[in-house]
Design a protein that fits this description.
Length: about 130
């Protein structure tokens, strides 16, 4: 009984390209942190290169650049540090270049698109 389900699941994921989806950088990543830990998110500790397509960058009030593995980590850091909101940049998913966060489109909860960290439909694309 499990075999037909597994075959259907494999066909479904192959058909919609979920098996080839990756957050990992396919170009040489841009790192903005200057310390020895520039390859790691300062909040969760995830590798920036492995989460490059969902990463974002900010500047603290003291001028220090920070790079996060996701917007979630940025929001967590904003609660503790004074982040300059106009300095926030995100990575364009397709070109993998820096983009002003105000010009980006985002995936929000309860839509017909697949979220980055799961294969469950969770968000809709909007422009902020």
């Amino acid at each position: 009984m499990k075999l037909p389900f597994i075959i259907i699941l494999f066909c479904f994921t192959s058909l919609f390209g979920y098996s080839s989806f990756s957050k990992k950088a396919t170009i040489i990543p841009i790192y903005v942190q200057s310390n020895d830990e520039k390859l790691w998110c300062p909040v969760c500790g995830k590798n920036i290169k492995d989460n490059y397509k969902t990463s974002c960058i900010s500047k603290l009030a003291n001028g220090l650049d920070r790079q996060y593995s996701s917007l979630y980590c940025l929001v967590e850091d904003m609660q503790e540090y004074a982040v300059q909101k106009d300095s926030i940049k995100v990575i364009d998913f397709y070109t993998q270049k820096l983009l002003d966060a105000k010009k980006a489109f985002y995936v929000l909860k309860d839509a017909d698109v697949v979220a980055f960290s799961t294969m469950i439909n969770r968000g809709s694309s909007i422009k902020c």
